[in-house]
Structures
1.
Amino acid sequence: MAPTTGQERRPGAGGSGVAVGGAAWFMLYLLVAVTPLMIAVLADPPPGRDLWTEISVGLGFVGLSMLGLQFAVVSRFSAVNAPFGLDAVLQYHREISYVAMAFVLAHPVIIFVRRPEMLEVLNVVEADWQARFGVLSVAALLALVATSVWRRPLRLRYEVWRVLHGILATVVVIAALLHIEQVGYYVDGPWKRTLWAVMSLAFVALLANVYLIQPLRIRRRPWRVTSVTPANGSAWTVELSPVGHDGIRFVPGQFAWLTFGRSPFAVREHPFSIASSAEEPGSVQFAISEAGDFTSRIGELEPGTRAYLDGPYGVFSYERQEGPRFVFVAGGIGIAPVLSMLRTLADRGDSRPCLLLLGNPSLEAAPYRQEVEELGDRLDLTVVHVLDDPPQGWEGETGFIDGDVLDRHLGEGFERARYFLCGPVPMTDAVQAALAERGVPTDHVNLELFELV
Ligand SMILES: Cc1cc2nc3c(=O)[nH]c(=O)nc-3n(C[C@H](O)[C@H](O)[C@H](O)COP(=O)(O)OP(=O)(O)OC[C@H]3O[C@@H](n4cnc5c(N)ncnc54)[C@H](O)[C@@H]3O)c2cc1C
């Protein structure tokens, strides 16, 4: 496979470049977000409209633009994700949607407050099409946010939610564009029309990219399951080999979205960290723990099953954070990206000291315990098991990984070490807080969360 095409830029490929890339993307985002507002400002004010109506229209335009940009934010564009990391980008996607919603809602709210007679447009049976499209767009937006915020209380399965999310998002944007088109004030005149047409086409192109182009790109690079083997702690090692291409270039610690046995257009794609060494890109291994309906059937996968892999993504890698020594803190299957980093360090003959704190209920439940201990022969690696349900006679660490455990094992010069935490949120929160209390700079601490939604 070509080393860079379609991939995120290598983490660690230059801190200032990354910062500049991030700032440039953010400026572009702001520019696109306010472009419709500029179109509106430059337009001749329609007759008989007061300033508040104009303000409300401007806010609505910015909100819509931000919503359209959400398709770019979630498009998994390598160049956009590289400076921030996909998880940070998705976090931004979640949080900025509240801001966009506030802008969009401000549009009808201001109009209704200033001109209560306009409330009539809510009667969609009798209202005209411009009002119907406006109401449809806002209703779809409210449903979109509600189903995302309350997905669990509403008992929406992830896959169902994801399809619904895509449909609602498309309805929000298309209905809003039709609403603007029907109102027509701001899209008259050749250059305003052209500008607006370009914006609308860009939104549609982003939609096509998410639902069509990316799956087609993934389809060109199929994989095959070569083995599925059980590991400790209800985990499975799934190995994939490339079919008709030369595999994937990744940095240790990154993850990919996996789809098995179906077309890449399937909605059942799940993110998993690559657990194998980056020095062996020809075949990749994933360490998958049984969690729900998809993962609990991983053990039933037959060798030979077709697979599709979208990635690599993520910035959780020691390559992004070179330091004199490394401290890895993993809980349960959080060992997966750490395993990839340790295997890569070993394959590269790296002699820097590594400390691995592993939190599990018991040694038997600790996934990849054996593999980790064997890596000690090839690395300057200290492994500390912290068991919350230890067997009788266990003399090691017990309970959860906390400040006291850190104090006993971090050793001299711990402030200069680089930290990589992956595991249950209470564990990563506690360790993060304890490290901050001990004066470890926050930019030395890297986090991978297995919860995206
Ligand atoms: C960056 C990242 C790396 C990960 N790496 C690993 C790994 O190496 N090994 C491992 O065992 N697990 C990993 N996970 C977690 C794994 O993706 C989920 O456990 C799995 O998708 C759950 O699917 P399920 O249907 O079996 O469980 P469910 O019970 O359906 O889901 C449990 C929870 O997982 C999340 N989830 C479910 N489906 C998806 C999906 N398609 N995409 C995103 N999140 C979803 C939801 O929050 C859901 O509530 C990773 C997650 C992320 C975000």
Note: The two ends are 31 Å apart (CA to CA).
2.
Amino acid sequence: MTDTFRSGFVAIVGRPNMGKSTFLNRVMGQKLAIVSPKPQTTRTRVLGALNRDNCQIVFLDTPGIHKAGKNLLNRAMVQTAMQSCQEVDAVLYFVDAQRGVTEGDLEIVQRLPRGEAPIYLIINKVDQIPQESLLPLLAKAGESGLPFDEVIPISALEGSNVDYLVGLLDAKMVEGPRYFPEGMVTDQPERFIAGEIVREKLFLNLQQELPYALAVQVEHYEERESGALEFHALIIVHRDSHKAMVIGKQGAMLKKIGSAARYELERLLGCKVILKCWVKVKKDWMDNRQLLQEFGYPDDLRE
Ligand SMILES: Nc1nc2c(ncn2[C@@H]2O[C@H](COP(=O)(O)OP(=O)(O)O)[C@@H](O)[C@H]2O)c(=O)[nH]1
Ligand SMILES: [Mg+2]
């Protein structure tokens, strides 16, 4: 055994709702990315640095790749996912066991700008299919004609085969630096995480199209002398009618979302949290380049 330090980057990509963020949280043993049953919950790249013996694997969770015609936000999400595959050491392409590899996946995989990096097909949610259908599914994936280096069935939710996959990635890492110091598991500041947790509660509590039409911006963040953290979260919607729905009857919905977010933030950050939420209408924010840049998207967003 040598004690050369090994490291590398691994992109987690696929269509929306395949369990990519659930997988990131599972391997990191903590919640870094928000998760919901609705597609397009993840809007930006979420980084998780996993430390193992003499090895650091840096995972990049990404927004789902979908047909991004509609607005600049959607295109920014897809662009972010695609770009995350550049200069990584491995790509994990996620599909859902119940749906298998589709024509859409075929198209996406061929377009990924992954260079020479190996690509693994991850068949997730195997807990949702009968065991006897797994072998035929694997055989079929092998025949897809795509250049997968290996096909790996997992359950990100229940954890089955996840250790095997991480071990495989560990073995692929090559001599390199420790990109992130040991105590630093992500590059997201606390205020960003706070906004994401509020957004998750909005995704979980609001119906239909509404979650897609809102954003959360943490405008103010301070550490009180008592040790409590105070966050002021602005919930941005693009229609007056949406504002009313987010606030709810006599403020009931906003209160529900606020307390669910505060409860989770306190557990996550390990301190008392004061969370104030406002709702504001900004017409067509999803096409507002400047605002999207404030959310962390690149300034070279393609039209
Ligand atoms: N049964 C099952 N559900 C899963 C699994 N992984 C993720 N999910 C669920 O699938 C939904 C989408 O997960 P998410 O991680 O947000 O998907 P993403 O859009 O690809 O990041 C959520 O409701 C998850 O709880 C899995 O292995 N098994
Ligand atoms: Mg996600």
Note: The chain has two domains: 6-175, 190-294.
3.
Amino acid sequence: MDIHFVCHDCGKKHHPRSLLWRCPCGGLLDVDQFTISFPFDEIKKRPATMWRYREALPFVSDSTVWEALTLGEGYTPIVPLDSKSPNILLKVEYMMPTLSFKDRGVAVLVAKAKALGVTKVIADSSGNAGTSLSAYASRAGMKCDIYVPESTSPKKVLQISAHGATVHRIPGNREATAHAVIEAIESNQGFYASHVYNPFFYQGTKTYAFEIFEQLNGEMPDVLVFPVGNGSLLLGAYYGFQELLHGGMIVKIPRFIAVQAEGCAPIAQAFRTGKKTAEPVVNTGTAAEGIAIAAPARHRQILDAIYATGGFVITAPKEKMEPARRELASKGFYVEPTTAATYAGFLEYLAQAHNSTGNLPGFEPDAKVIIPLCGAGIKAN
Ligand SMILES: [Zn+2]
């Protein structure tokens, strides 16, 4: 099995050996279709990590490159919000080696980079992808440069440095950081291990879908809530559910509710007017740094996935984020502000659905909902 990338715009195929981060035409790269399988009799005997689904990941069957790198990521618990809400389920994604869901994508991406002979990785991040990449790169024996906005939580910067990575703190917003890293890549300073552009990242986050299927014994939820900045969990999960659908294991993909932060919501703005593409916005400030992406590169794919599931985009109001964080903490879940925004967005959706005149797809009283808790509170200020 030889994996190829395919350009989303011109359809040209590229071997990952090319180390391209986008097509020469400027288009985004995706992983071209490859044969996958789900041998559940075997899967159920394996350790509780995302690698139990290895026949669905882009590695040849006898590859062991991931075994030297895994930190036991994945197979995070699904627990009810509280005893009064047995159908509101939380997937506790911060129970990961570096305390965020990003470990799913980074573990696959670093394993692929290692197999390609990469010795130095570079990435830009609002924090969590950087902390994850620095940990896995260090384990793989690679050098690592991480570019973060100057405003990034000092705890995340400390976590990145602890793994031996070089941290570049860039003045200005998240876009200035993205710009700085692309300059570094274009002057050949290393391999761009981007959780936005590198399509292997989404091969890792797709295991989120497989776990939900397996952990709920195939009793699929009605609604899935996702925080959306660059869409790295939403898109991966969408690909995972598509694979389950094509494999005949599920009959439909649950409705996706995407949450953006008030102050930086280009996807929400596009969705409100039924557009298939999002225009960049000006980030006017939000505590939800993990989803404060003014110009998400994969905006078309994110919107396609939301429309295809009969989904919706909601904006989490600024003043509701801190109360949402406290409410989750009162139930035992200490999360970072971006994750609080996800829960605040869900509550806002419920409030609007109950008040709406039928414009919002409402939840049935017994609808089963899954909300991911993507990042641990201890990482934030
Ligand atoms: Zn192209």
Note: The mean pLDDT is 94.
